[in-house]
Write a structure and sequence with these properties.
- The chain is an alpha+beta fold.
- The protein folds into three domains: 153 residues, no CATH class; 64 residues; 128 residues, Histidine kinase-like ATPase, C-terminal domain (Heat Shock Protein 90, 2-Layer Sandwich), CATH 3.30.565.
- It has eleven helices and five strands, in the order αααααααααβαββαββ.
- Strands 1-2-3-5-4 form a five-stranded mixed beta sheet, covered by helices on one side.
Length: 389
């Protein structure tokens, strides 16, 4: 079994933007400045003051004002130029073009110029007044560029996220519009046809002279009425854009069992003239509603396919239990006449999808005598243990 590696807790890196590289860079900067301060000639007092202010560079990303306030203390060492430039860069990167950034530049430039002041300069007084601020200005300009770059990236990411949300919204609207269009087409075409079949079958029931015709017409009428009711529920789901509630599956009773559901389906199909045999024990174990619905749909679709592709052929249905599974086997022989009902080609696909959603397996294929066999295995519980990887 493969265990997923837990993500490291980087909350303690929040001061360094949750990036270990930033922490390593700041530690290396402080260590390098400390080593340089120890190697150059300086007084003990100056070194103590410099080392007292040096840790502010470690937390400069979280508290840039500490590094700015420490710039006068950092100037007590000959290595003052680099830490002061870093402090100005950090302030510009964190704050951007604001008055705090300008105030930081003035304080740092004044401190560095005062520390480097020589009453008798070799390069002239103007050089002393311009060079230290120029160094700091270069670092501050780089910080301002980094600040603007970060703001631009944030804006681009926000626009990308907004565009993705708009795309998803447009897709949802398109799906909703398509669902409503399908509902209108089904209502205008299919519902009208099924209603006509039900009305004509009802009229035939009232006017037929022999009992067999009356029974057949009644089966057609009741089946058409049931199909119309299911179609109306599907149309309601399409219009409301809501998932179909499991309890709306006709034929699956709320307090029934797999055996009672399949037995009722077999009785209705046999009443319509089908030659169907059911081999199942009435005391089949109880299964969750999702498994019952999947089993019912497998048997229903198999009977429908047998009626379309093998009319008047015998259909054998067997329900049995294996360890942890409910096995459903439907076998029909070859048809004695051609079908008159066009097929959509989606019956087996829909059956396989239902079985897969129930975490079961499905095998279908022709038999040696020219018939067809459907073998489904469904778990007795709604969730089966997953294999260890």
């Amino acid at each position: 079994m493969k265990l997923l590696a837990s993500q490291p807790d980087r909350r303690w890196l929040a001061w360094w933007e949750s990036k270990p590289a930033n922490l390593a860079l700041d530690v290396a900067l402080v260590a390098g400045l400390a080593w340089f301060a120890l190697t150059v000639h300086a007084g003990l007092t100056d070194r103590v003051i410099f080392f007292a202010a040096l840790p502010t560079l470690l937390v400069r990303r979280r508290f840039p004002w500490l590094a700015i306030l420490a710039t006068p203390l950092l100037c007590f060492d000959p290595a003052a130029v680099l830490p002061v430039i870093v402090a100005c860069y950090t302030a510009a990167r964190q704050w951007g073009p604001r008055w705090r950034t300008l105030a930081s530049f003035v304080l740092a430039a004044g401190s560095l110029t005062f520390a480097a002041w020589d009453p008798k300069p070799h390069d002239g007084i103007l050089y002393q007044l311009l060079v230290p601020p120029a160094w700091l200005a270069a670092g501050m300009l780089v910080g301002l560029w980094m600040h603007q770059r970060r703001m631009l990236l944030d804006a681009l990411q926000g626009r990308a996220a907004q565009a993705e949300r708009n795309s998803a919204l447009l897709a949802d609207q398109a799906v909703s519009a398509e669902r409503r269009r399908i509902a209108r087409e089904m209502h205008d075409v299919v519902a009208h046809r099924v209603s006509t079949i039900a009305l004509q079958a009802g009229a035939l029931t009232m006017t037929a002279s022999d009992e067999h015709t009356v029974e057949t017409a009644e089966v057609i009428r009741s089946t058409s009425s049931l199909a119309l009711a299911e179609l109306r529920e599907v149309l309601d789901v399409l219009r409301k854009d809501q998932p179909e509630p499991p309890e709306t599956v006709h034929g699956v009773q709320a307090d029934g069992s797999v055996y009672s559901d399949v037995a009722a389906l077999v009785r209705d199909s046999a009443a319509a003239g089908g030659d169907i045999r059911l081999d199942a024990a009435p005391d089949l174990p109880e299964v969750p509603g999702s498994i019952r619905r999947a089993a019912y749909r497998v048997v229903q679709e198999s009977l429908t396919n047998a009626g379309k592709h093998a009319p008047r052929a015998r259909v054998d249905i067997r329900l049995a239990t294996d360890p942890g599974e409910l096995r459903i086997t439907i076998t029909n022989g070859p048809g004695h006449e051609g079908t008159v009902v066009p097929g959509s080609g989606y019956g087996l696909l829909g059956m396989r999808e239902r079985v897969t959603l129930a975490q079961g397996t499905l095998r279908t294929g022709p038999t040696e005598d020219g018939g067809f066999r459907v073998d489904a295995a469904l778990p007795l519980s709604s969730s089966r243990p997953k294999e260890l990887m």
